[in-house]
Design goal:
alpha/beta; Rossmann fold; 2 domains; seven-stranded mixed β-sheet; 15 helices; Glu/Leu/Phe/Val/Trp_DH_C; Glu/Leu/Phe/Val/Trp_DH; Glu_DH
């Protein structure tokens, strides 16, 4: 692979999956799956294009747009669009690779892909964002469709951006079809979609707590550290509070916000922070003496003793050192609301502690399983669009709960089947998620003749 470009994020994601497959009994029982891994690690198609748009001063600006159509074995390519200055091919390949197996774990018919642009929406006017989105979609519309590739939002792409892109697609193609998810509720969007990733994360951790405690414990009375302050963190925090837990932190790219007293964050404070984020302002715009803002910090070493950690901001936001701090301060569960939220050093620390400390260990769940609720409800939005139906919040939420339970059970049982574990030891959820997602995709690829 020495002839390949330097793509650190993608190789981290690949090595994390490949190492767990190699350290399990999967290749021993099914040696042909080594070939499947080679094939699955290369995208079916990578599209790169220029996006030329006009700012409010009448000046021409240009950005790089991408769509990585990674794997369509299980269904149309599915995965978000990210608008952020950090976007490059390595990041989008890592996200698309993760998306393949995450989508497989939902049980829905969706392939994996990811896209975006190095455009920064911060500081731009609505008119500039509209012109950019229309220009971006003028090229992307050539490559997507309801049965081909269905993008969604991600960092920098919310309801406003989805609306502008949907309108540009409709104008270019002269058809209304569900080619984007995360749409407005009055024109094809699904109820519970904004909440889905955060809610699904909490539902997954509920099953972890229930299994680990033999049904004796829940979120009630638990101290929960969260990072991020976007949709995922906001709705995860609200659901934790609803279930009786205490949220002690949030964060953004500028720093961390820590609760000073035992009451933690309240729904009213989270709503205030959500409004600040809607205005695209940093957490420094929030001022309340009950909360301490720490500039340039992540929350993990500032929260003291916590029971649960939910990294929900971006990739590699928990380091090996921070992992050791969480372990030393009594954290029992960590689950990623973000994609690849933990570094490999952090994962190694969690897994080593799990093996060494059995029932008193920390238990780690990877993002491809724990944060699958968002794309699961995107899949439900696609189903509603195809049927020209709109389901109630209760219907969607119940389906989401069922998907997250099945996802947890699948990860757990697959880990027990393929990864040796000792008496009283928690099964490896990261190994179970990787093997369960990979084998489902690989089997479909084999049936299609993609490897043989």
């Amino acid at each position: 692979m020495s002839n390949l470009p330097h793509e650190p994020e993608f190789f981290q994601a690949y090595n994390e999956l490949a190492s767990t497959l190699q350290n399990s009994t999967l290749f021993e029982k099914n040696p042909e799956y080594k070939t499947a891994l080679k094939v699955a690690s290369i995208p079916e198609r990578v599209i790169q294009f220029r996006v030329v748009w006009e700012n409010d001063k009448g000046e021409v600006e240009v950005n790089r747009g991408y769509r990585v159509q990674f794997n369509s074995a299980l269904g149309p390519y599915k995965g978000g669009l990210r608008f952020h200055p950090s976007v490059n091919l390595s990041i989008l390949k890592f996200l698309g690779f993760e998306q393949i197996f995450k989508n497989a774990l939902t049980g829905l018919n969706m392939g994996g892909g990811k896209g975006g642009c190095d455009f920064d929406p911060k500081g731009k006017s609505d008119a500039e964002i509209r012109r950019f989105c229309q220009s971006f979609m003028r090229e992307l519309q050539r490559h997507i469709g309801a049965d081909t590739d269905v993008p969604a939002g991600d960092i920098g792409v919310g309801g406003r951006e989805v609306g502008y892109m949907f309108g540009a697609y409709k104008q270019a193609r002269n058809k209304w079809e569900g080619i984007l998810t995360g749409k407005g509720g009055s024109w094809g969007g699904s109820l519970i979609r904004p909440e889905a990733t955060g809610y699904g994360l909490v539902y997954y951790v509920e099953h972890m707590i229930n299994y680990a405690s033999g049904g004796k414990e829940s979120f009630k009375g638990k101290r929960v550290a969260l990072s991020g302050s976007g949709n995922v963190a906001q709705y995860a925090a609200l659901k934790v509070i609803e279930l009786g837990g205490t949220v002690v932190s949030l964060s953004d790219s500028k720093g961390a916000l820590i609760a000073n007293d035992a009451a933690g964050f309240t729904p009213e404070v989270i709503e205030e922070i959500a409004n600040i984020k809607l205005e695209r302002k940093p957490l420094t715009a929030f001022s309340n003496p009950a909360y301490k803002y720490i500039d340039g910090a992540r929350p993990w070493i500032h929260v003291g003793n916590v029971d649960i950690a939910l990294p929900s901001a971006t990739q590699n936001e928990v380091s090996g050192e921070e992992a050791q701090f969480l372990i030393a301060h009594g954290c029992k569960f960590i689950a990623e609301g973000s994609n690849m939220g933990c570094t490999q050093e952090a994962i190694d620390a969690f897994e080593a502690h799990r093996k060494a400390n059995k029932a008193t260990a920390i238990w780690y769940a990877p993002g491809k399983a724990a944060n699958a609720g968002g794309v699961a409800v995107s899949g439900l939005e696609m189903a509603q669009n195809s049927q020209r139906e709109k389901w109630t919040s209760e219907e969607v939420d119940n389906k989401l709960k069922g998907i997250m339970k099945n996802c947890f059970d699948n990860c757990l049982q697959t880990a027990k089947e393929y990864i040796p574990y000792g008496e009283g030891e928690f099964p490896s959820l990261v190994g179970g998620a990787n093997i369960a997602g990979f084998t489902k995709v690989a089997a479909a690829m084999r049936d299609h003749g993609d490897w043989f």
